[in-house]
Every structure is written in structure tokens, then in C-alpha cells.
Design goal:
It contains five helices and 38 strands. It is α/β, with parallel strands linked by helices and 343 residues long. It folds into three domains: 86 residues, MurE/MurF, N-terminal domain (Udp-n-acetylmuramoylalanyl-d-glutamate--2,6- Diaminopimelate Ligase, Chain: A, domain 1, 3-Layer(aba) Sandwich), CATH 3.40.1390.10; 197 residues, Hexapeptide repeat proteins (UDP N-Acetylglucosamine Acyltransferase, domain 1); 33 residues. The strands form six sheets. A ten-stranded parallel sheet has the order 8-11-14-17-20-25-28-31-34-37, with no helix packed on it. A ten-stranded parallel sheet has the order 10-13-16-19-24-27-30-33-36-38, with no helix packed on it. A hairpin with a 2-residue loop joins strand 21 and strand 22. The protein is flat and about 90 Å long. The chain starts with a strand and ends with a helix.
Amino acid sequence: MHNISLAELANKIGATVAGNDEHIVSRVSSFAKSSKDAVIFVVDEKYLKQLDVVDFGAVILKPEHAEGFEGTALVMSNPYLGFALATQLLDTTPAPAKDIAPTAVIDKTAKLGSGVVVGANAVIESGVEIGANTEIGAGCFIGKNTKIGENGRIWANVSIYHEVVIGHSCCIQSGTVIGADGFGYANEKGRWVKIPQLGTVLIGDRVEIGANTCIDRGALDDTLIADGVIIDNLCQIAHNCEIGENTAIAGAATFAGSLKIGKNCMVGGASVLNGHMEICDNVHITGMSMVIRPIDKPGVYSSGIPLQPNKEWRKTAARTLNIDSMHKRIKELEKQLASKAKD
């Protein structure tokens, strides 16, 4: 458990203290489980009234919400950012590994920087280079000639194939597979002929990848994940995709091959994006969208049918199946009306 004074915490997260800056806290908490050793935060004004009945060490508030507040507050313009930074400082998550486990299999040609730790039964093949202070969890596989930067955290049972390049300060959650073959086949009279995938995967700095996500290697050129990208659990990134800086991808999203998506985009969960097309910068695609055409203008895009009671949905579905015939009837009625107007 970490213990920190509010004065020190405020200095590290860019806040100012209103109240007792010597008070010691050790965790960040929800309202429901708060206590005197905890920091909570409020972004929405509607929660301010609840502060009167909640026990806490300090609350992170916007300046306008701190006016007249009699308790101890950490005041800053973006309390949610303060919450994120405080959580990092008070994080008690254990490291994926400690030291180099005796059961780890590390090829003699692999180069491990200072402070690298490797968990039990991990395998690191020939030609691998791992930067300083990177943590490799138990059961991981790091393929030949792969390069991983400094200060990375790779959790248990991650598989990274050969010649993949991963930048600095990346976090990869358990079960993820990086650099497996893309889905490339030719068809000869009904028989599928495999196309070896000769590219690799290049991942930038500060990239975070959720559990059980798959990022395929390129067919000829490489699959590219730029700096600052965050990818949730259970996502599929197919071969030769390119994802721009600081783009966020929520769980179970599927990207088909050779999709190029720009910077600062957001893709909602369970969305499916067609391949061989481009999505421009600053696009927000809401959850469960099906994207089959390029997007060349920033903005928010959605598709799909929202949830309805089953009886209403059945009617909607039936009407949807009749859209083509309804369209033809409307066009015919428009022609008849236009003809009568001329008369």
C-alpha cells in the first residue's frame, strides 16, 4: 500500500490543495467504498450534494465546484485526469514478473537491457532485443529477432511472433497474439492455397493492447500501429492495417485487411470496418457500427438498429425487408402526382 500526503499528491497531479495538505491517503475510491484514507473525484455537478454524506480524505474538484466547499479538496480543471494520475501513483497491481525465473528459456543470443524481468516458463528466442526495465510475464513467447523497447509491461501468456517491433512504454495484456499470419489465401478450383505472410507488425510507443486481441502481420508490407494507440480486449486487427496516433478502439471491434484509419479516432465496441479503404483523422464511430465505405470528413458516425421491445423490433424488421418495394411504390406515386400537377 502506498501512503502519500495531499501536498505531494497535488504536486504530482497538478492540483492545489484546499484544506489540510498534510493529510495522508493511500488509495483512490468510489463514493460507495470511500474512507478517510481515500481520494474520490467529482466531475458532474449533480454529485456534489452527495459529498455531505460520504467519508473521504479528499475530493478532486473543478475550481467552480470548490468554491464554498468546506472539506478538503484537490482543485484542478480536469478532475477525471486527476483521478487517472492519482490512480497511477497509488496503483497496487503487482508486476508481471520478478527477476528472471529459473524456468524461463532465453536464447544466448538474446539481448536483455538492465532491469528486465522474465516470468516462469517464458520463451525468448534468438536475436530478440528487450529494452531496459521491461517486464515479461509468465508463459510469454517472444519470437526470433523481435525488438521490444524500454519500460514495457507484457502480461502472462502473450505470444509475439518473429521480427515484430514494439516501442517504448507499451502495455500488452494476457492472451494477446501479435504477428500471427494474416488471412491470405488464393483459390485454385475450390482449393485454398496459403499465401505466406512476409511482412511484420510495427508498434509505436505508449501503445496499450487489451487481453486476447489479435494483430496480424502484413502480407508483404507491415501492419502499423502508431504511437499512443489504445486497443481494448478481443479486437481483431487484420494484416496490413494502419492505425494512426492516439486512436482508441473498444472491445470486439474487427478491422479487415489493409484498412487505414487516421489519428485521434474512436471506434466503438463490436464495430466492423471493411478493408482496403481509409478513415480520416478525428472520426468517432459509435458502437456496433458496420463501416463499408471510406470516411473522408471528421465527425460522429453510427449505424445499426437500436434495441426495441421484441414485438416492435419484429415489425421494424418486417418493414425493413419491404423497403425496396416501398421505394418503388413511392417513386410511382411521385410520378403520378407530377403528372396530375402538369394537367
